[in-house]
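Could someone model glutamic acid with this protein?
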Amino acid sequence: MQTNSSILSTALHNFEQSAKRLKLDSGIRQKIGQPKERIEINISPVMPSGKLAHVRCFIVRHHDALGPAKGGIRMTADVNLDDITGLAMEMTWKTSLIGVPFGGGKSGIQLDPSTVTPQEKEIIIRGFTRGASRHIGPEIYIPAPDMGTNENDMAHIRDCVSYSEGTSITKGCYVTGKPVIIGGIVGRSQATGKGVVYTALAMCNKLDLDIADMKVAIQGFGNVGAITAAEFAKYGAKTIAIADITGGIANPKGLDIDALQKHVKTKGSVNGFAGGQPIEKEKIFEIDCDILVPAAAGSQITLENVKKIKTRFIAEGANAPTTPEADCVLAERKIPVIPDILCNAGGVFVSYLEYTQETQREQMTLAEVEGRLETRMKQRFEDVHKLAEQKKLTMRQAAMDLAVSRVVEAVFARGLYP
Ligand code: GLU
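Reply:
Sure, complex below.
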């Protein structure tokens, strides 16, 4: 597959390398290396101004041997079908590795969410839901939040589906990451950040490091970055630098994360925060730290900046933050990486609990959700770490090999069809 998308080329590269190591034949390689379905949907909802908004939307179902496609909705100004294809592919491996009965999917809405009012965003989300209705459902594709979307948007999707049926509930789970009040699950919004920290704790154990001595640098202060920083603080680790899309802030004594969250809520970004010194946002990858967490966009650790990284290990909170070339340099420099499909899988794991809860009309407590999340993240970390040690692989290679093997196994278990 030819592409200009760095996210898709990273996903393809990681898959091809794994397919080679696993000696997959070309038939199965093609079958699971290509998306099953790539859809572009153009919507033109009427905005409060009376004008039509023309918005391009995308849905990709990459693979579903293990279950219906699962993955978030990315809303950014420049998201495109190839990025969504790469992210959907990554979801196939993520759901497989974390062991939930889903395949991989993703959707995209090509719009900068900061340019619209909450009312306009709701209209666009509802337009997307109607336009995509044939492609969304508990047995087809179940969306969730991703960059640029949040639980309010998931609430509108849920309402749009049930409203069309003339009921207040849906038959099964159509979307995860909803507010708890309308069928969401407690702990979902913290799940990705918590999962990042559980895997980082497991890595500290392996490297014989005390979490309370760790200095952390984080790129991104959205849902994943902010929760990760707050969770690290609970274990005594200090977040000494954070960058977002507008700038960066550093404090060698540790940033006050609560205060920073309040600042970001009112000011919209980390810029101007009194509890630290401003830094250029690109310098986040040059900070002398113990744990580096890219928790923003894709393709951020590149050949340009990888040599300047000074950290003991990297925990990939974002999807596809490291280009394949930079990944090789990290391996040469012996900087371990907890790969995205493991590190940030806490979100989709708790989405699975939400799906189960809604399907069974059950209610789970926060203690149950967090207990299951912690156990699963640590188990999978162990599995990946063990294979990496045994076969002298990087953690990314080991994670990919485990994930791809499970999908292959499911394809063969199903037999000839589909
Ligand atoms: N967007 C998140 C991810 O990339 C969550 C997906 C989900 O919960 O379905 O993993």
